[in-house]
Specification:
By secondary structure, this protein is of the alpha/beta class. It is 33% helix and 18% strand. The strands form two sheets. A six-stranded parallel sheet has the order 7-6-5-9-8-10, sandwiched between helices. A four-stranded mixed sheet has the order 1-4-2-3. It is globular.
Length: 262
């Protein structure tokens, strides 16, 4: 397999004790505070904004920073904080997002055989943290998540990962299918872990530059990503349970990569 290196490819803070399970250090609220956060160098997971609130400046800065704005009812904001949120709230990321192109280039420059983990709409923060812990232990070079529909990377994710998120880069991509295609152009092969195949994951050659794609807890890998994968592999289920927890399944796939690489 050809291992090409031409990968083409990225203020004021008011905190409060929340009324839900969201940790206070994970978000800021209020129009001016959210504005200053978006203007800062800190990474932001997403912005929650009242459905009928019109604030072109926040929307402009969110677009500039590629931050998703989710329109929500007042009840949702009030469940997070009862303070004067003014209809807007932003979640602060616990990590600084990396550029996938830089991660791949760094791996090749170090003489490594790259290993990238794609998480397609993994929304459970505990699953995300457990996957990060396993990926770091397996020497994966990065975790790639979509800009929308992924678990919030806050203090809970950091805790569940046992600090692994401090050591493994996390990349955000607007289009996972496009990002997978760019890796393939750079010499990667891509395996999707899915039950929509009769082929076992162990039947494929996973020794070269690899990207492992894991799907959401509810409906697995999206159809567009399924079609993009070079390989599809399933984990055999011998009992009555039809599927494994996604973090467990990820560990199985990653350690098969390690086994094949010797």
């Amino acid at each position: 397999m050809e291992n090409r290196k031409n990968f083409r490819v990225k203020g004021g803070k008011h905190f409060t004790r929340p009324t839900s399970t969201v940790n206070a250090e994970d978000f800021v609220f209020g129009v001016q505070s959210v504005m200053e956060l978006l203007k800062s160098e800190k990474d932001v997971d997403k912005v929650l904004m009242l459905k009928d609130l019109d604030n072109p400046e926040i929307e402009q800065w969110a677009r500039k920073k590629q931050v998703f704005i989710q329109r929500v009812p007042l009840e949702k904001l009030n469940r997070i904080t009862r303070k004067n949120h003014q209809g807007v709230l932003a979640f602060v990321s616990a990590v600084n997002y990396a550029r996938l192109s830089n991660v791949v280039a760094d791996a090749y420059e170090k003489g490594k055989v790259p290993l990238i983990v794609f998480l397609d709409r993994i929304t459970d923060v505990r699953n995300f943290g457990a996957i990060a812990r396993t990926a770091e232990a397996c020497g994966a070079d990065a975790i790639v998540i979509p800009s929308r529909g992924s678990a919030q990377i806050g203090s809970d994710a950091m805790k569940t990962s046992s600090g692994a998120l401090s050591h493994i880069p996390v990349c955000k991509e607007n289009d996972l299918t496009m990002a997978v295609g760019q890796l393939q152009d750079s010499g990667f092969r891509v395996i999707g872990c899915t039950e929509k195949t009769d082929t076992l994951y162990t039947a494929h050659d996973l020794s070269g530059p690899m990207a492992v794609v894991m799907g959401s807890e509810e409906d697995g890998i999206s159809d567009s990503l399924i079609r993009k994968c070079d390989y599809l592999g399933k984990i055999p289920m011998l009992g009555k349970i039809e599927s494994l927890n996604v973090s467990v399944a990820t560990g199985i796939l990653l350690y098969e990569v390690i086994r094949q690489r010797g």
